[in-house]
Amino acid sequence: MLEHIPAWLGHAMSGLRAGADKLAIAQLGTSFETLDLTSPAFAHEARMPPRFTADGEGVSPPLVWNAPPAGTAHMVLIVEDADAPTPQPLVHAIVWGLDADAGRLPEGAIVADGAGDAASAESAGSDVGRNSYLREGWLPPDPPSGHGEHRYAFQLFAVDAGAGAVGETPGRSAVIDAISGHVLAAGLLIGTYSRETEAPVGPVGVAASA
To answer: Which CATH code is given to the segment(s) 2-193?
Structure first.
């Protein structure tokens, strides 16, 4: 994966980035209230601990948010890498249909759920969508070595009952189309991560053998 691109190549691509203007929250406009989205694991715009990345256990981080506005039917989470060396931000996670009153998503909760039956009480009834590798679940950050700091945007949307259906394991385009015009509030949490040297061998970030 991207974590094993040679550092010299990552440095050469340092100017190639998707851009924050292409994040979902930027595409959906600004005519909505603000949600307070935080994590007990890292501060806004601070470095994420390796355990949430391809250099560690590769589990999704815990998230906490305040009460959404009246009229919220459910919550939608989209996590994207604004600095991926790709034309569009890399999608690391999508969770559709989070309980509006849950207020939190525990560590490790974003996992493949098949038909959408979430494992934790906080995400019961939700559906984990497809990341950019076309798989359900959390795609651990794995920025190219030498590419510089990457910003991982955790974007939480409170949507009304008019949001369209997306089917099982939805992708980014289907989710954006479904919630466009139905966002009541949104929250943004940025976690950063970078590799200046070759990626270490770990449970998730395993070095190539050849």
So the answer is: 3.90.280.10
